[in-house]
Amino acid sequence: MEGLVKGLMDVALDAIAGDGDDSRRPHSPPREERSRSSWAQVVSSGNAEETEAADEGDAGGRHGRNQWSTRKEEDNEAKDGDWETVGSRKKHQQRPQKRWQAPTETWSSYKRHPDEQEYMDQGKHAVDVEPTREELNDLSKACNRLWELDLNRLSPGKDYEIDYGRGKKVYQEGDMAAGSLFTWLSDTVLRQPTYARFCSLLDNYNPDEGCREVVSAEEKHEQTAFIEEISRTAPIKYLFSYLVAKEIIPENYEQFKRMMNSLWFNLYGRGGVSGSSSAFEHVFVGEIKRRQGKEVSGFHNWIQFYLEEANGRVDYQGYIFPRRRGQTPDSETQLLTIQFEWNGILKSVSSTLVGVSPEFEVALYTLCFFLGGEDNHVELGPYSVNIKCYRLGNDKIGSAFPVAEC
């Protein structure tokens, strides 16, 4: 573990060094000049999926393999103007949805050097973030504490509404949802600092797994600024205190932030192409695999789902029946197992945490990466969850996502 953390720290320091002087970096080509396939090209290959847990099973795992197995996983992302939309839109929705966009000046400020940006007050989340002895000895208790510290988690019915539709078995065909999953989201939600910075990152990637990513200086600024913003929140502060108490990292918050930047944003190879993926892109944005037919992988985030659904690229098709009777979801449920199509590609089963903040998910998956195994059976408030965490090699997050236990 000490070698893993040292390696992450070294890579982080190398990657961040010189960030204040863009003139010493080679100029990155403008985003519109990148080699990006149209959506028609990306999805012109073909296949459905099995179960959520099987999705990412051999993600290079603990054996340091750089190839993914044939197990299936989750979904992908597209952007207005860059992609051709494939697949049908919903026939109708309960309420009209509008694409959320931050004001132009907000996006412009996010692309400036991190030192030139404005962040939330450090004292805004001034709560106790020290882990207890019980939490240090029990990963489940630590994850549940993160849930309690998620001060930016949304409230169903107050901040958003969902219509979960009808249930189905994984193998059943047909759309069991007449409308969209999200029927309404408060206009204020995606304007919150950590949410807005998270959204600014979603258009930085080419979801084609076979395409090498090109990261501009402005995109690096967005990444660093996102880590800086979430580092001012209670979940990330708790994560830092926990890792320090476990002697996994030194007690240096600036070094910790550089490590987090490296862990989530450094590029690595996937699908035989170097520099084509990252933990952030895979887990939160999504990717398209084209080996042996088309597959979607990643796309484990509700914000990305909401935005793609609002833009007509996600077609929600109903929830998956739980293994136990009496556990069917309702409009208050924040752990859903669902089925949907993304740009015409079926995702048979996908569990997602709805309404949680970006900082909570980053903290949760990072904690399980450092302290847990492939399966992490934990309690998150009222929910029993298995946080699946797959490694790519020994020091990279191959994938991380929740699976409902019942």
TrEMBL record:
<dbReference type="GO" id="GO:0003723">
    <property type="term" value="F:RNA binding"/>
</dbReference>
<keyword id="KW-0255">Endonuclease</keyword>
<dbReference type="InterPro" id="IPR039787">
    <property type="entry name" value="ENDOU"/>
</dbReference>
<dbReference type="InterPro" id="IPR018998">
    <property type="entry name" value="EndoU_C"/>
</dbReference>
<dbReference type="InterPro" id="IPR037227">
    <property type="entry name" value="EndoU-like"/>
</dbReference>
<keyword id="KW-0378">Hydrolase</keyword>
<keyword id="KW-0694">RNA-binding</keyword>
<feature type="compositionally biased region" description="Basic and acidic residues">
    <location>
        <begin position="21"/>
        <end position="36"/>
    </location>
</feature>
<keyword id="KW-0456">Lyase</keyword>
<keyword id="KW-0540">Nuclease</keyword>
<feature type="domain" description="EndoU">
    <location>
        <begin position="135"/>
        <end position="406"/>
    </location>
</feature>
<dbReference type="GO" id="GO:0016787">
    <property type="term" value="F:hydrolase activity"/>
</dbReference>
<feature type="compositionally biased region" description="Acidic residues">
    <location>
        <begin position="49"/>
        <end position="58"/>
    </location>
</feature>
<dbReference type="GO" id="GO:0046872">
    <property type="term" value="F:metal ion binding"/>
</dbReference>
<dbReference type="GO" id="GO:0004521">
    <property type="term" value="F:RNA endonuclease activity"/>
</dbReference>
<comment type="subunit">
    <text>Monomer.</text>
</comment>
<protein>
    <submittedName>
        <fullName>Poly(U)-specific endoribonuclease-B-like</fullName>
    </submittedName>
</protein>
<keyword id="KW-0464">Manganese</keyword>
<dbReference type="Pfam" id="PF09412">
    <property type="entry name" value="XendoU"/>
</dbReference>
<feature type="compositionally biased region" description="Basic and acidic residues">
    <location>
        <begin position="70"/>
        <end position="82"/>
    </location>
</feature>
<comment type="similarity">
    <text>Belongs to the ENDOU family.</text>
</comment>
<keyword id="KW-0479">Metal-binding</keyword>
<feature type="region of interest" description="Disordered">
    <location>
        <begin position="15"/>
        <end position="107"/>
    </location>
</feature>
<dbReference type="GO" id="GO:0016829">
    <property type="term" value="F:lyase activity"/>
</dbReference>
<feature type="compositionally biased region" description="Basic residues">
    <location>
        <begin position="88"/>
        <end position="98"/>
    </location>
</feature>
